[in-house]
Amino acid sequence: MFDQIVNLVKDQLNSNPQVAGAIPGDKADAVHTEIATHVANGLKTGATTQGGIGGLLSSLQGGLTPGSPLNSAIEGGIVSSLGSKFGLSPAVTGAIAGTLPGLLQKLAQKVKDPNDNSLTEEGLNNELTGNAGGGMVGGLLGKL
């Protein structure tokens, strides 16, 4: 499930040539994974405050504004992390953060799409709560 979030991040960033071109090729996979980690952690926190994953997904489907609490929480972590870990400039980290509302909305649409079983509400809930094969943390540790 975490891999699908990473793939959504890649698709979102690669659809923006300015952002994709600003990420050094040798760091791209690590940057995508870092962003996906922040998104997953933000979703976990958001699900807790929105009454579960269903409430969170409903709010994401309705559209997320750049100043929303969920977006701001994820954005702050991403900007700081990408700057310190990968040396990306504030212009690049800001551009990446600007893609978050679209990324989160695509994630919600993908989860709610009955014709696409690659990301499901149950699977996402299990991933975020750690109920499926070690959850997000177990999946990340398995990649080390």
Q: What coarse outline follows from CA principal-axis ratios?
A: globular
Low-confidence stretches: 133-144
Main sheet record: none
Counting copies of identical and different chains, the oligomeric state is: single chain
Mean pLDDT: 81
What is the H/E string?
HHHHHHHHH
Instruction: State the end-to-end CA separation.
Output: 17 Å
The number of strands is 0
Overall structural domain count: 1
How would you explain this protein's 3D organization?
There is one protein chain. The chain has 144 residues and is mainly α. The protein has one domain. It is 74% helix and 0% strand. The protein has nine helices and no strands. Helix 1 crosses helix 3 and helix 3 packs across helix 4.
What is the fold's blueprint, element by element?
Blueprint: H1 2-14, H2 17-22, H3 28-49, H4 53-61, H5 69-86, H6 90-98, H7 100-112, H8 121-129, H9 135-142
Helix pairs in contact: 1-3, 1-7, 3-4, 3-5, 4-7, 5-6
